[in-house]
Amino acid sequence: MVMLGYTNSRPVRIVGPNREILTLETLPPPHTTRWVASRKAQVVTAVQSGLLPLDEALSRYNLSLAEYYSWEDALDRSGVAGLRVAAVQLDRAARRSRQLLNS
Predict the structure, then answer these.
(1) Which has the higher per-residue pLDDT, 99 or 86?
(2) Cross-referenced Pfam families, in alphabetical order (predicted)?
(3) What is the spatial distance between Cα 51 and Cα 41, in angstroms, rounded to a whole number?
(4) pLDDT on residue 102
């Protein structure tokens, strides 16, 4: 990830997951309720790069720590496509099947 500018050791803008320039002003609006994969990816990228501290992201978007980490894990494993609801549901089903087979 390329950092483009800093203020107080925090980047002012970053290159987002779709190669767009992200700033605090261009992130999804606070209290977003409709979470498409691209918005989730923007939030995770902003937190990982230091643009948005994790505690501020949780508060700003009313997320639980578990929900944020599930987004981060999905993005790390499968990219933006892994953040789609259908992909998450398929992943859960596959994990349940593996657990049943191992029981």
Answers:
(1) 99
(2) DUF1153
(3) 13
(4) 82
